[in-house]
Amino acid sequence: MKRKNPLVMWGIALETEAAAFLEQAACSGCVLHNWDGRMPDNSALESDEPVLVWVSQRGWDAVSALPDEEMQFLHLVPRVLLLQQDVSPEYVERALDAGFTDILKAPFSEPRVREVFLRAAEMQNLYDDIIRMTREICLEREVLARKNDILEFIVTFLSRATESLDPVEILSNAREDLSMLLPLRALHAALWHPQQKDSLEAEVFLGVGEHTQAGLEWSQMLLKAAAKLSGVPVSGYTVEQLGQGGAEDAPAPGKVILLPLKMRDETLGCLALLTEDDCQLGKDQVQVLHSAMRHLALAVKNALLFREMRLQADHDGLTQLHNRRHFDTRLREELDRHGRYSMPLTLMMLDIDYFKQINDRFGHQAGDAVLRELASVLRETIRTTDYCARYGGEEFVAILPHTDEQQARVLAERLRKNIESRVFRHHGKTIQATVSIGLTGFKPGALTPRDELVREADAALYLAKANGRNVVCTFAGSCNEKVKKAQ
């Protein structure tokens, strides 16, 4: 299939200035038709044959409001969503689920725009190849069955590669789909972030047991391949299980196909395929296999980016603890779980004493350093089953599952002493800090609302402040021995 010259792009509800920039930045001689005020139809698609559609946030909102059948033809063209402002991770997930191949956030750079365009053109060339292959099938009846198998594989593989943002599910689907193309017995993989320069942390995905002899051999093979493909040594790795569905065999000479996952100049992973003996691939199968790997790389990169964005959205940037938003969700889940199984739970709230004086005396950077260090002390002190978050400002919270108030007081007192004895340093200056801690318990069978439990913990914290600070108090009015001696 021969494309028109010049290449045509579409814009959906773009500002005039943005449309001009995209037309100039994408490629020399490209033409951008901007649809603003009305939407294109299927006849316009056949006439223009656009290689890419740029959709503004306003344009997507308009398209989303239309019936699916009216805009279904747009799914045939790669689409890029242009964001002018920050959006929630849920908004990004919804956009990826809607089939956008990429998302750009303002300000847009010429190299990034051109990279997206070239990738879209590459994808469109693949679609053109599919059409050409379909026409050849009609002309060459003797290879009809084989071509149909390849076509079915491409359609299935491309659609399933983008239907999930979970790397395990993406790779499990790839294992099933690749069995349509070649006699596949097992699939294993390694993924990493290509931005790692001096060394890399890899994620190994195994279809066999991690601690079996076969699992160890596959892990070693994948880690060696990761070091070779990335050009840097592997400093550490984690292992994820792909579940059942593959052979338990170890790698054997002549049976393993190693395929890199690349996006232009970036290598972000590799697959290790275990095949049957004497697996001979035809030229068309090899071409399709490499094309499939490019699309799988795109799906994997989107999944890794989504996971990273979700992690950033759930954590406080300064302390790397969970943030208030994630805490609210987690507390609701824990209360439901503990209420269902009649188990005790304690909520702990702590606040740095005289934190404003620390900022005023040593500066806000010193205050930030104290917050970071205190978060480390909190992580070191609480148990692995506990959950901590930065509630806001200099306030922190911890959820203590399966813990009554008496047990929580022991932990809270240990935390208070650890912070009191810790020497905080910033640029050669020594800073002392203490915390006041409030506790309230959720008793089995009680119908305490989430907001009420937080209010009780806050009231207990206020009581600790009122009793001289650097103490632990409960909502019931009981404070630690330090307060009793002071009284």
From TrEMBL:
GO MF annotation: an example: diguanylate cyclase activity
Look at the named UniProt entry and state the broad enzyme category this protein falls under. Answer: transferase
InterPro entries per the UniProt record, alphabetical: Diguanylate_Cyclase, GAF-like_dom_sf, GGDEF_dom, Nucleotide_cyclase, Rev_trsase/Diguanyl_cyclase
Catalytic activity annotation: 2 GTP = 3',3'-c-di-GMP + 2 diphosphate
Q: Where is the GGDEF domain?
A: 343-477
List GO BP terms, alphabetically. cell adhesion involved in single-species biofilm formation; negative regulation of bacterial-type flagellum-dependent cell motility
What EC designation does it have? 2.7.7.65
GO-annotated cellular components: plasma membrane
Which SMART domains does its entry note? GGDEF
Quote the protein name from its UniProt record. diguanylate cyclase
Q: Which organism is it from?
A: Oleidesulfovibrio alaskensis (strain ATCC BAA-1058 / DSM 17464 / G20)
Q: What is the lineage of its organism?
A: Bacteria, Pseudomonadati, Thermodesulfobacteriota, Desulfovibrionia, Desulfovibrionales
